[in-house]
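STRUCTURE:
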């Protein structure tokens, strides 16, 4: 019964009815004359039954018992046995589980001899014929060569033959397993007693990974014996074929990148390589023959066997895990894009070691072209502004001339590999670069974090609000940028990379439109109350740094405090305290530019109506800031910028009586209607337009009413996010097709759970494209009778309920998350 179980491991084409245990006790040659069989060496020629067999490697003759005793050797070709006279069949169904030449029918014997005469490589033959020949190779090694070491010269010839059979018939799993293990045994038997490590060739990374190449096991032993460090190529082969190291999909899907990255990381971690101890374990092979005429055997050599050593396995497994993780995004991209490698978008997902060489030069030609374009704009400078549209044109975007948030993140990631930073950076919470606006590229000589930490997020939020305060006078200048940067770095713990990026962000704020309220609110959502309070303090310090606070500064501070969730009623007291408290003045002077700390004079004034003009007072020099006063005393405001002689100062109080002020009751109030002519028709038209807009806006912002006074400043210094950003793209054409399909959305639309018919129709229309320009989406929503902003919010809320992720990302271009979309559509009623 044991033979039955063992034979099932390699099915040679028989059916279960052919299965029968062999009688090993009987003598197959009892009563027959002695006629010895012989082995035909490789290259020998013979003819059997009219079949010319050109290359030997067979047992031919009579009276050759199986090595384990009892019956005839299965591989023996007995020329006296009957052969079919006509063209033999090749079905192979009558071969049995353990084919033996003396037991198969005459037709099968003739077909087997024909296969041998044809060169032993003909495709499509029953695998039983291949096994029958293979039995003879096993017997030659395990029985003849093991008993007579002088025959070892044949081992390389046997190994070459087995390799040829594997190439021809290796798709058969059972034969591949037996032949592979047999080839490893041949290698170990034929190896010299001592082989230097330099004599071995690194095995290729192939599948299946088991059994491991014998060359690998022998080479590892040689490195340990010689005390040499293990090179990266051998470590990679060891990790690849180790049975206890799990290789995930990226290792197979992007095998070349896996090997390159492993080699680089191995050198970083282990220098010249691991140094392994020989240990006590010796190289040994246990071989279970395919032939039923041979017994299992064990063969070993005095070579250290490190293949399963525990400590090297642990180190290699950790390295393989890190390398595989870093190739995960690239591997998924290859799956989604049909293994396309010739694109800059794919390179953006690779680790930096596979993008640039040791000198920081791009390895891919397309990436090198982008790197050269940016270097040409920097021209040795640390940072510069570029046209965002020109940068977008060098990226394979889904929509012409516009980037999605995901594409912008990939661009920033690739530039980071090249030692270049970009502002705005969507990974840090910034908006998507838009054609027609400016972007800032800057060199990153230090590590710049790819994601915003809490302190950096607070610093950028402060920078955006401070820019709104300072830019109320004019464009944000270099001194003001330095002032904001120094304040942020002094108050918040930022590392060198974060300080570098903050400077670039301020540069971008000074040369482009301010960030939208959407970006600001997204940043504010992640800030703690403590950091919000810190930003509020820094804004007051910024506004009062020059010793002057104008009304529009206070207005910006009030608006910023409301956005921060702070009490705006505290702003006047905070400003007053900052201007008058000695400690606050001292801290301001440390960051205020020298020009702002120059002596100041009072503002020029004209005499009020009804009062005599004060006489000019000669002043020998500019009036300097007075000695700090208590916080409840008046302060001096408005730094002077003109010549001193042009200013009028009131006389000092004297004993002379003051001129009485006019009685307000006697001064007639002006009539406003008499000052401005009114157009009643225009007023009525404006009121009608206002009513229409108010109705639309109420549906959008009903759940998010802005604080009092915030609506007026919501668009201050902000870009129009609904402006058309895709030249040549007709949004109306893009939407009209879908709008025309949904004239009767209440009747024939398959509903999505949680959505009504118009919103279900909108969701299905969005599924036809991976990205939608904002104006195209708006036109599509309007065509379905929906308010665009409200419809987008509703779809994203439904996506959050179903998949914990929003459906869309981006502002000017809405990028559709395909996984979330499928989650929504997969739940259709």
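SEQUENCE:
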């Amino acid at each position: 019964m044991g033979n039955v179980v063992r034979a099932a491991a390699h099915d040679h084409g028989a059916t279960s009815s052919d299965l029968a245990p062999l009688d090993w006790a009987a003598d197959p040659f009892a009563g027959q004359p002695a006629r010895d069989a012989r082995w035909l060496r490789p290259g020998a020629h013979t003819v059997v039954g009219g079949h010319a067999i050109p290359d030997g490697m067979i047992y031919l003759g009579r009276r050759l018992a199986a090595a384990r005793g009892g019956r005839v050797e299965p591989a023996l070709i007995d020329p006296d046995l009957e052969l079919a006279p006509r063209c033999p069949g090749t079905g192979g169904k009558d071969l049995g589980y353990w084919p033996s030449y003396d037991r198969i029918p005459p037709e099968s014997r003739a077909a087997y001899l024909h296969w041998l005469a044809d060169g032993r490589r003909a495709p499509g033959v029953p695998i039983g014929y291949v096994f029958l020949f293979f039995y003879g190779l096993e017997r030659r090694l395990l029985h003849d060569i093991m008993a007579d070491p002088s025959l070892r010269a044949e081992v390389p010839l046997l190994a070459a033959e087995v390799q040829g059979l594997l190439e021809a018939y290796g798709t058969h799993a059972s034969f591949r397993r037996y032949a592979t293990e047999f080839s490893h045994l041949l290698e170990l038997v034929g190896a010299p007693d001592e082989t230097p490590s330099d004599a071995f060739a690194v095995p290729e990374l192939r599948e299946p990974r088991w059994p491991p190449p014998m060359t690998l096991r022998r080479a590892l032993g040689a490195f340990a014996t010689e005390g040499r460090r293990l090179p990266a190529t051998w470590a990679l082969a060891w990790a690849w074929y180790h049975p206890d190291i799990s290789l995930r999909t990226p290792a197979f899907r992007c095998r070349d990148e896996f090997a390159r990255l492993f080699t680089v990381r191995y050198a970083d971690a282990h220098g010249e390589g691991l140094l392994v101890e020989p240990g006590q374990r010796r190289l040994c092979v246990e071989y279970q023959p395919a032939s039923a005429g041979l017994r299992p055997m064990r063969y070993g050599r005095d070579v250290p066997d490190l293949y399963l050593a525990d400590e090297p396995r642990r180190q290699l497994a950790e390295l393989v895990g890190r390398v595989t993780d870093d190739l995960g995004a690239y591997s998924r991209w290859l799956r989604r894009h049909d293994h396309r490698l010739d694109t800059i978008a794919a390179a953006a997902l690779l680790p930096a070691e596979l993008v640039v060489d040791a000198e920081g030069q791009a390895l891919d030609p397309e990436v090198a072209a982008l790197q050269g374009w940016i270097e040409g704009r920097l021209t040795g400078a640390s940072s510069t502004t570029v046209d965002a549209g020109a940068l977008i044109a060098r990226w394979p975007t889904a929509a012409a001339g516009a980037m999605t948030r995901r594409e912008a993140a990939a661009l920033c990631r690739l530039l980071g590999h090249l030692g270049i930073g970009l502002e705005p950076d969507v990974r840090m919470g910034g908006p998507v670069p838009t054609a027609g606006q400016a972007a800032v590229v800057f060199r990153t000589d230090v590590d710049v974090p790819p994601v915003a930490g809490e302190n950096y997020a607070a610093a950028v939020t402060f920078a955006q609000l401070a820019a709104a305060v300072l830019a109320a006078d004019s464009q944000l200048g270099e001194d003001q940028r330095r002032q904001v940067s120094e304040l942020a770095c002094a108050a918040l713990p930022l590392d060198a990379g974060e300080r570098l990026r903050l400077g670039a962000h301020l540069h971008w704020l000074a040369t482009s439109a301010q960030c939208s309220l959407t970006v600001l609110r997204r940043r504010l959502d992640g800030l703690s109350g403590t950091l919000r309070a810190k930003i509020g303090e820094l804004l007051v310090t910024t506004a009062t740094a020059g010793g002057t606070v104008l009304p529009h500064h206070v207005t910006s501070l009030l608006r910023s405090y409301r956005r921060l969730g702070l009490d705006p009623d505290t702003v006047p007291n905070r400003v007053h305290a900052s201007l008058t408290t000695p400690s606050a003045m001292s801290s301001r002077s440390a960051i205020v530019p020298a020009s702002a700390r120059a002596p100041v004079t009072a503002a020029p004034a004209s005499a009020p109506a009804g009062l005599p003009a004060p006489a000019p007072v000669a002043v020998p020099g500019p009036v300097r800031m007075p000695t700090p006063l208590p916080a409840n005393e008046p302060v001096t405001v408005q730094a002077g910028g003109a010549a001193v002689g042009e200013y009028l100062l009131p006389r000092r109080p004297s004993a002379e009586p003051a001129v009485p002020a006019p009685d307000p009751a006697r001064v007639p109030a002006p009539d406003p209607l008499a000052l401005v002519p009114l157009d009643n028709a225009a007023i009525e038209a404006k009121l009608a337009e206002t009513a229409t807009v108010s109705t639309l806006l109420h549906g959008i912002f009903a759940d998010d009413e802005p604080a009092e006074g915030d609506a007026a400043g919501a668009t201050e210094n902000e870009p129009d996010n609904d402006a058309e950003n895709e030249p040549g793209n007709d949004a109306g054409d893009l939407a009209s097709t879908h709008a025309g399909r949904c004239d009767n959305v209440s009747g024939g639309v398959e509903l999505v759970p949680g959505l009504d018919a118009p919103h279900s129709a909108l969701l299905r229309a969005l599924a036809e494209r991976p990205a939608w320009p904002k104006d195209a989406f708006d036109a599509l929503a309007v065509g379905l009778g929906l308010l665009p902003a409200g419809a987008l919010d509703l779809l994203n809320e439904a996506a959050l309920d179903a998949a914990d992720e929003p459906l869309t990302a981006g502002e000017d271009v809405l990028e559709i998350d395909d996984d979330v979309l499928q989650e929504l559509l997969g739940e259709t009623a």
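REMARK: The radius of gyration is 43 Å.
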